[in-house]
Amino acid sequence: MGRTRELTRPQLPETSNLTTDIPTLAVQIRRLFASGPPNGWLLGWDRDRGFDDLSALVAPLAATNNTSFDYAFCNHFEVRLSLAEERYAVLTVLTSFVADVFSVHWTVYDPGGQAGRVVGQPPEGKRIEADVRAWLGRRGLRELPDELLRQPIPGIELELSGADDVTLGKCLFRDSAG
Q1: pLDDT of residue 147 exceeding 90
Q2: Is the pLDDT of residue 2 over 80?
Q3: Secondary structure of the chain as H, E, C letters
Q4: 32 partner at 20 to 30 Å CA-CA among 41, 54, 115, 163?
Q5: pTM for the whole thing?
């Protein structure tokens, strides 16, 4: 924390075509993160990459772009789906800038939206999730199972995770403490 990133770091490609073989991917991540976590703001990553297409795909549902490169290495989009009894579900769509991979998950919120819980696919979301997964596949992205995203990646230090709690998911999508 508090370190200044140099502007001379090489630009990561929009789609990196990195393998999704975990040992090879770990080596490539170590190389990309060798001088510290990449900073999407300084590297000029496109925070709107794919958002217009996703918005058109899910219409008339509302999509939002929550992309921020503060501790994150991905685009972060959400699609809101109304459920019965004033509940709603949010499909979170993350597309990595580090490798050609994505992650999707649902969070269901009770009335008031103060607290949500990550859940499997709500029945009302079956079609929209299938459409989003197909669209991501057509873009050349592959989904990694959650258990692989929890795979430790030694030899990397992230700002929030430090060096002791670094996982594949934190390097591909978003750093977090704990």
Answers
A1: no
A2: no
A3: CCCCCCCCCCCCCCCCCCCCCHHHHHHHHHHHCCCCCCCHHHHCCCCCCCHHHHHHHHCCCEEEECCCCCCECEEEEEEEEECCCCCEEEEEEEEECCCCEEEEEEEEECCCCCCEEEECCCHHHHHHHHHHHHHHHHCCCEECCHHHHCCECCCCCECCCECCCCEHHHHHCECCCC
A4: 54
A5: 0.84
